[in-house]
Amino acid sequence: MNTITAPIAAQQAGVSITTIRTWCRRGAVAAAKVAGRWVIEAASLARRIAIGTRKPAKPVAFTLDAITAIGGARWTKGGKDRVYINGWTQYLGLEIEHYRSGNISSAALHGESISNSEAYRLASAVHKVYFDVADGKVYIQWGNSGPRTMTRDEIAAAIFSGIRAAIAAL
Fold first, then answer.
1. Structure confidence at residue 66 (pLDDT)
2. Which residue has the higher pLDDT, 94 or 169?
3. By CB neighbour count within 10 A (0-12 exposed, 13-18 middle, 19+ buried), where does 64 fall?
4. Does the pLDDT value for residue 126 go beyond 90?
5. In this prediction, what percent of the chain has a pLDDT beyond 70?
6. Which of 60, 70, 91, 141 could form a disulfide with 127 if both were Cys (CB 3.0 to 4.6 A apart)?
7. CA 73 to CA 75: how far, in whole Å?
8. Quick one: angle between helices 116-125 and 152-168, nearest 10?
9. What is the DSSP string of the chain?
10. How far apart are CA 2 and CA 29, in angstroms?
11. Cα separations (Å) of 4 from 7, 20, 131?
12. Are 166 and 70 in contact (CB under 8 A)?
């Protein structure tokens, strides 16, 4: 195992010795104290430096083009200009299979099986999800159902997060 001292590690990483010591204390790099001084594993430091040099994630903006690109359907009427997100359940992580009759045959939330009745409650908790072109915000119109597995805040956060991830993947 190749090890280096804190001053050499700081020089290699382009940070202060204090930062290196903090990384050592917090476990951000593999290190041990020997005779009162930090000795850092060189490979661990290289991994930590690589993390710091990654490009920051590009900011995700809710725009007409972006929402349309992920499958939104534009609708204008009566002075309103919206893009409806019809497949919002995918952003929630809800997967539903149906019989030919339309009834739910099986369901999963984030890959874990859930009851058909809970899937129905989740799916009917949200009436519509849409992007308002005028103010650039995504809105949720709530339905009448109250699911047991998630609160409205959790549902909204999951939908917004899923939409952001889909736009970022474009």
1. 93
2. 94
3. middle
4. yes
5. 96
6. 141
7. 7
8. 80
9. --EEEHHHHHHHHTS-HHHHHHHHHHTSS-EEEETTEEEEEHHHHHHHHHHHHSPPPPPP---HHHHHHTT-EEEEETTEEEEE-TTHHHHHTEEEEE-TTS-EEEEEETTEEE-HHHHHHHHHHEEEEEEETTTTEEEEEE-S---SS--HHHHHHHHHHHHHHHHHT-
10. 13
11. 8, 11, 53
12. yes
Cα angle 109, 110, 113; round to 5: 45
Query: What tokens appear for 88 in the block?
Result: 């919002």
Least confidently predicted of 52-56, 97-101, 121-125, 146-150:
52-56
Predicted confidence at residue 53, as pLDDT, reads: 59
SS3 labels along 51-71: HHHCCCCCCCCCCHHHHHHCC
Bridge-based pairing of strands 3-5 and 73-77 is unpaired
What does the mean pLDDT of the chain come to? 89
Q: What are phi and psi of 94, to 5 degrees?
A: -100, 125
φ, ψ of residue 29 to 5 degrees: the values are -135, 150
